[in-house]
Specification:
The chain is an alpha/beta fold and 285 residues long. The protein has eleven helices and ten strands. The chain has a ten-stranded mixed β-sheet with strand order 3-2-1-4-5-10-9-6-7-8, sandwiched between helices. Helix 3 (88-99) runs parallel beside helix 5 and helix 9 (229-240) runs parallel beside helix 11 (263-270). The radius of gyration is 20 Å and the shape is elongated. The termini are close together. This is Nucleotide-binding universal stress protein, UspA family. Residues 2-138, 145-278 form the UspA domain. Belongs to the universal stress protein A family.
Amino acid sequence: MQTILAAVDVSRASHLAFKQALVLASSMRAELVTVAVTPRYEGNMNRLTLKDADTKMSVPFLKCLEDAADYAASLGLKISTVHRVGQPSEEIVRVAEEVNAKYVLLGSPHRSQVERVLLGRTIAKVIEESPCDVLLIPESAEIRFGKILVGVNGSKASMRAAERAMEVSREYGGQLHGVTTIDVPVERSLRYGVMNEAWQKGLAVLEKFTHLAEEMEVPVVTALREDHPKQALLAYAAEKDIHLIVLGSHGHNWVNEFFVDSVIERVASNASCPVLVVNGPAQAD
């Protein structure tokens, strides 16, 4: 049986995401494991006034797990719960490895740029270190697979994402859209032949994508857009009423330096639908 790991905390976004995790687990007939991590207290107040800081700080996180189990039970469903104390991203990844999760599911609240820098690090680190794909659920979004959008640029990471999107499309009967973008700086676009070359490269990427789809027997819709990838993907998703966006991660060590300016971070922070971040080679069912 496959396993989904849903991380919960005291935020509204995680509570709503947990409800969607139940929907996904039911559709996959998968086991749902829910984890809450109490950040370890690293101050020195406990030496003076606060005894057993970790235990006291864990109270709201344990309540989150209790509420999650109660809600699942009210629907006739059973979940497993795990509580850890430590660095949240590290503990979430550790539990994902222990339970051999197929997906890690995280709530993704809409944030300002400053909030993304300060608070988005847990999501960034989970994406960086996760042994499996990470599904980000914006507040109030629902998990649906009727229309799936994958961003492709010819890289290995984007082709892994394309393959995963095709697997999901085939499993749920969803319509798959593949979009690649041309983002040429204005000063370069004025040079002779530059835009034509960019278009040819873009068309070659879509041809590769279409060939993979034919091999997997998945019908696809393709588009080539002139814009920054983030704007192009978000605009296309809104235009076509996309239900799920699929993007490829470039793997370890890219997040710390580039997450704030990355396509994944920008799309995940602004999308109205869930975003599936694909890590590593496609997993066999």
